[in-house]
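User: Design a sequence. Structure:
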């Protein structure tokens, strides 16, 4: 069953979806539904690429698409200002040739101002082998499919093929603005082969299909004044090297009339896009199994764009599901975005954003991968966040992780002007490694936090108007390691309902950045050495190393010969610090002054 673009493999997800909205609820209703929320969202947050694809319509590819009889290939030669062909399956009118029937054709040569049309009303597949063609047109599209069951363009090995359209069009029918792309198709279109294709879209789009579009292989370069590559029903990239420079969106699927269409699927290959607007944008789902992505949108993370402009790196309005791949995204807007659900199961991410690193309106799930967000307004943001695994590094101008339903200050209509209210939001951490450096709150959840495992390090704010931890309902910690350094004005620690011991130390004055915080047991054995990258006046430490009734000493300053990762030391010897205080763990939550 399909719900919000994601397959829900458990019936309970359907039955309890109503409790997953971001609307406020009473405390008792929240408590009663909390475990059910986590259970249901764990299902959604672990959605696989395969199940996401299964929720969408199948593509048009068949093995027979790539098979033909070489003895029956029909040659068409382009002679600059004329066309040579000798077949009943094509007609010629000056420098325009029209293919009228299914079959396999081979094009070679060039047209200074001409066109290749496919108008084949029969049921056969039209295969066109591009064997070193250069077609230009001064009034319309140089290659257009007006009617066919399916068209397959084959880029012959070691050939260079170029299509260039006009900067303004003269339409055959003044009431219909088609064709509107340099390579245009009203039928399902496939591009394959080991040659290259360069498309220059001077009027509107570069490559556009009003049905489905598959890029099987090849080296494809598109320059377009609007969208680069567009498949209305779907855009599928199975392999190849794709480079797009566009003033609009780079890669797009925009069918908004069918919930099983309007999706982008990338299986492999290399995609480089420089777009004035979105990099990859789908009306429903963006589903990525692998590949190499280099995306720059809206001028990059330092650019200023208007509130009406969408310049996101990867955007799926219903969902984004990523299985693997390598991603370098430099975006003026969110680097990865969905109006509903984002699920990251693996991959390597280097993200720099003028807004959020990864944003999902409803649910964000991280199950693996290496996510490095070097610049953003907020790092990870959603109503509900489920982190099961993975390595996450965030440097944020505001909150590192934000569990809230309101828009942030970088978007129109966001606060200041009204803080998001407390409600049915949560962060669930079941594993992984998270390191946050934040100017605002390190972790901010307008609801509940549950931490069962993993490692969380927060180099938090220096302003007392923010806190390293900020939650509205509760923070239940039952496992894992938590270190949160920051200001003391709004400092919070795990709730007393936790089952694992935690410590909060507040100091009378801020300690300088780089000042070691060290805890050792009464017998002198090391428990913790941590080096915050910013000044701090509060420190929260939760760990299975803290035991009830045990006594510990807190030291400030000094040195360590251990290995530091994000400020947390492993091994080595600590020395030279000043003893700040001694404490005994009397219960789950211990609060002391340093």
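Assistant: Done.
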């Amino acid at each position: 069953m399909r719900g919000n673009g994601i397959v829900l493999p458990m019936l309970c997800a359907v039955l309890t979806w109503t409790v997953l909205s971001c609307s406020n609820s009473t405390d008792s209703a929240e408590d009663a539904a909390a475990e059910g929320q986590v259970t249901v969202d764990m299902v959604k947050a672990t959605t696989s690429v395969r199940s996401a694809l299964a929720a969408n319509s199948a593509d048009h590819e068949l093995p027979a698409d790539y098979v033909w009889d070489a003895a029956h290939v029909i040659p068409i030669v382009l002679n600059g200002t004329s066309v040579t062909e000798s077949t009943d399956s094509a007609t010629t009118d000056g420098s325009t040739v029209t293919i009228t029937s299914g079959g396999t054709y081979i094009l070679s040569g060039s047209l200074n101002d001409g066109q290749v049309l496919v108008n084949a009303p029969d049921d056969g597949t039209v295969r066109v082998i591009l064997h070193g063609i250069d077609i230009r047109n001064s009034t319309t599209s140089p290659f257009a499919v007006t009617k066919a069951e399916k068209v397959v363009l084959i880029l012959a090995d070691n050939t260079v093929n170029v299509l260039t359209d006009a900067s303004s069009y003269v339409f055959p029918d003044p009431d219909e603005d088609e064709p509107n792309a340099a390579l245009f198709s009203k039928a399902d279109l496939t591009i394959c082969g080991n040659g290259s294709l360069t498309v220059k879209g001077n009027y509107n789009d570069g490559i556009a299909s009003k049905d489905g579009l598959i890029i099987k292989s090849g080296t494809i370069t598109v320059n377009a004044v609007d969208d680069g590559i567009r498949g209305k029903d779907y855009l599928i990239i199975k392999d190849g090297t794709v480079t797009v420079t566009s003033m609009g969106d780079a890669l797009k699927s925009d069918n908004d009339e069918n919930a099983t269409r309007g999706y982008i699927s990338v299986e492999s290959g290399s995609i480089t896009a420089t777009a004035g607007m979105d990099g990859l944008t789908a009306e429903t789902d963006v589903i990525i199994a692998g590949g190499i992505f280099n995306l720059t949108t809206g001028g990059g993370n330092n650019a200023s764009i208007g509130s009406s402009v969408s310049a996101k790196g990867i955007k799926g309005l219903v969902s984004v599901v990523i299985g693997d791949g390598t991603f370098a995204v430099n975006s003026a807007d969110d680097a990865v975005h969905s109006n509903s659900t984002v699920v990251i199961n693996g991959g390597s991410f280097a993200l720099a954003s003028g807004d959020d690193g990864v944003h999902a309106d409803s649910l964000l799930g991280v199950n693996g991968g290496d996510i490095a967000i070097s610049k953003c307004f907020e790092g990870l943001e959603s109503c509900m966040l489920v982190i099961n695994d993975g390595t996450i590094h965030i440097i944020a101008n505001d909150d590192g992780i934000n569990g809230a339903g309101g828009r942030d200050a970088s978007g129109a209509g966001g606060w200041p002007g009204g803080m998001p209210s407390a409600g049915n939001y949560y962060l669930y951490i079941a594993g992984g490694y998270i390191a946050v450096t934040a100017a605002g709150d390190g972790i901010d959840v307008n609801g509940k936090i549950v931490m069962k495992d993993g490692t969380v390090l927060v180099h938090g704010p220096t302003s007392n108007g923010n806190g390293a931890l900020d939650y509205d309902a509760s923070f239940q910690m039952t496992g894992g390691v938590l270190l949160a350094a920051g200001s003391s004005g709004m400092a919070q620690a795990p709730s007393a309902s936790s089952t694992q011991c935690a410590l909060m130390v507040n100091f009378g004055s801020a300690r300088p950045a780089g000042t070691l915080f060290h805890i050792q047991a009464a017998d002198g054995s090391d428990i913790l050495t941590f080096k915050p990258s910013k000044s701090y006046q509060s420190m929260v430490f939760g760990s299975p190393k803290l035991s009830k009734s045990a006594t510990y000493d807190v030291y400030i300053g000094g040195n360590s010969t251990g290995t530091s990762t994000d400020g947390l030391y492993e091994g080595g010897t600590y020395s030279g610090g000043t003893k700040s205080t001694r404490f005994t763990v009397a219960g789950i939550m211990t609060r002391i002054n340093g």
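The chain has a mean pLDDT of 91. The longest strand covers residues 363-375.
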